[in-house]
Write a structure and sequence with these properties.
This protein is an alpha/beta fold. The protein has 4 domains: 6-131, Rossmann fold (3-Layer(aba) Sandwich); 133-198, no CATH class; 219-387, Rossmann fold (3-Layer(aba) Sandwich); 390-442. The protein is 43% helix and 19% strand. The protein has helices spanning 6-19, 35-40, 45-58, 82-94, 108-118, 125-136, 140-155, 187-217, 233-241, 284-289, 291-298, 314-327, 333-336, 349-353, 375-387, 402-411, 436-442; strands at residues 22-30, 62-71, 99-102, 121-124, 222-227, 258-263, 269-274, 302-308, 337-342, 365-366, 390-397, 413-419, 425-432. Strands 6-7-5-8-9-10 form a 6-stranded mixed β-sheet, with helices on both faces. A 4-stranded parallel β-sheet has the order 2-1-3-4, with helices on both faces. β6 (258-263) and β7 (269-274) form a beta hairpin.
């Protein structure tokens, strides 16, 4: 068990180590016509470099410089060509670089060979994202999920600094730290630890399923916020719920999911869930490890896809989010989706007037989560989407049936209520298809 204050102390040490880690970010991009180049073509190399630098700075690394490297083909031994490796090695030496971040997925062999050539630590995009997640995890569940993903990653890297036996959360496994030893990863110990974590996460999954079942008794629909990292989900979550979830202009500011109740325009309510941000080339092991958390997205009645419409790569980011939703097995996402174009406050008048928003249901909703502009339209769109497949039922309740009225408020959306002259209460309620029979049984004597 970590002593009180130890976690904070560890975080401070990590900040100090990061601040003194002179980092070079290397962003390879393909110049050939291949599946790889087609996948990367959605973004400009400059945009990918900016994102990679943002990832490095998300864990406070001291980024000395970043460079783009054009690739005609990937070399099995070092990923980059021999001449470029030699050139970068000179640069690493001249600038006294401690860490080279490669914005690509490296094989263990490529990583080790580059470290030998550069005489510095090398980490790839997957490892960097894992480190960010390790830093951001705040709950026991989040820490377990990160550790499982990190172990899966480390399993294939037999000669790496691995510190999960000494401490319980990710973060700077590639840098080392006080009291940590450089050891050859022991496959058996890793596998044993992975089995234990998977067992714990299975319990989490069952607990979440029970929570979902209990929420089903009180019919609050689930509205899940998804989007590319730093699209403004947490700011929107705070705006809709008046909560104070961490919202910062950094990649992966939110990792652990948060849920709050929100009120809808006609008096109904829904549970709003803020989720971890998605990113291009999100490591498969992270999607797998976070499946228990991301099941909230799969179970959601409505998925609000938050896009940073002011970002130059907004379209490409949207495609990445859709690809991950598909990988998560979110079926019929289009029927559940409300697309939100956020950060209107960052657009100049010309760009704003040029937005092709369209009209009616299914059209994107333009908002600024920061200023509150368009929030009423968003809640109305959420309510409209939730109303799909729901029935309106008119009921006349006896004056003495206060208990029945209370039941309706607890188990349905009461859209309208009117006290008639003879003392009866006329209510119009909206219910999901699977609840209609239950309402009609409960109020068999109530006229419609």
């Amino acid at each position: 068990m970590t002593e009180p204050g130890a976690e904070e102390g560890l975080g401070q040490r990590e900040l100090i180590v990061a601040a003194h880690t002179r980092t070079l970010v290397v962003c390879p991009y393909s110049t050939s016509r291949s599946a790889l180049s087609e996948r990367l073509a959605a973004r400009s190399p400059e945009a990918r470099r900016e994102e990679a630098v943002g990832l490095a700075r998300a864990i406070d690394l001291s980024v000395v410089d970043s460079t783009l490297v054009a690739l005609s083909e990937i070399r099995p031994a070092t990923y980059l060509g021999k001449g470029k490796v030699a050139e970068l090695a000179e640069r690493v030496k001249a600038d006294e670089i401690n860490l080279v971040v490669m914005d690509c997925a490296l094989s263990p062999v490529q990583q080790r060979n580059l470290e030998k050539e550069f005489k510095a630590k090398v980490i790839d995009r997957t490892g960097l994202i894992l480190e960010i997640f390790g830093r951001r995890a705040r709950t026991a569940e989040g820490a377990l999920q990160v550790e499982l993903a990190h172990l899966t990653y480390q399993k294939s890297r037999l000669v790496r600094s691995w510190t999960h036996l000494e401490r319980q959360r990710g973060g700077f496994g590639f840098l080392g730290g006080p009291g940590e030893t450089q050891i050859e990863t022991d496959r058996r110990l890793i596998e044993e630890r992975m089995i234990r974590i998977e067992r714990d996460l299975d319990k989490v999954k069952k607990t979440r399923a029970l929570h979902r079942a209990s929420r089903a008794d009180v019919p609050y629909p689930i509205v899940a916020l998804v989007g590319y990292t730093n699209a403004g989900k947490s700011t929107l979550f705070n705006r809709l719920t008046r909560a104070e979830v961490v919202a910062a202009d950094m990649l992966f500011a939110t990792l652990d999911p948060t849920m709050r109740l929100i009120k809808l325009p006609h008096g109904g309510a829904a549970i709003l869930s803020d989720t971890v941000g998605f990113i291009s080339d999100l490591p498969t092991m992270l999607i797998s490890a976070f499946r228990a958390t991301l099941e909230e997205v799969r179970a959601a009645d409505v998925i609000v896809h938050v896009r940073d419409i002011a970002h130059a790569d907004s379209e490409a980011q949207a495609k990445d989010v859709e690809a991950i939703l598909s990988e998560l097995g979110v079926v019929g996402a289009a029927d559940k989706l409300v697309e939100v174009w956020n950060k209107l406050d960052k657009l100049d008048p010309a760009h704003r007037s040029g937005l092709a928003l369209g009209q009616g249901e299914g059209s994107p909703v333009a908002i600024s989560a920061l200023t509150g502009e368009g929030i009423d339209k968003l809640t109305a769109a959420i309510e409209t989407r939730l109303a799909r497949g729901r029935s309106l039922i008119d009921l006349d309740l006896e004056p003495a049936d206060g208990q029945g009225l209370h039941w309706l408020y607890e188990h349905t959306e009461v859209m309208a209520r009117e006290n008639t002259e003879d003392g009866h209460v006329h209510v119009t309620v909206r219910v999901p298809a699977d609840t209609v029979a239950r309402v009609k049984r409960r109020f068999a004597g109530a006229g419609g």
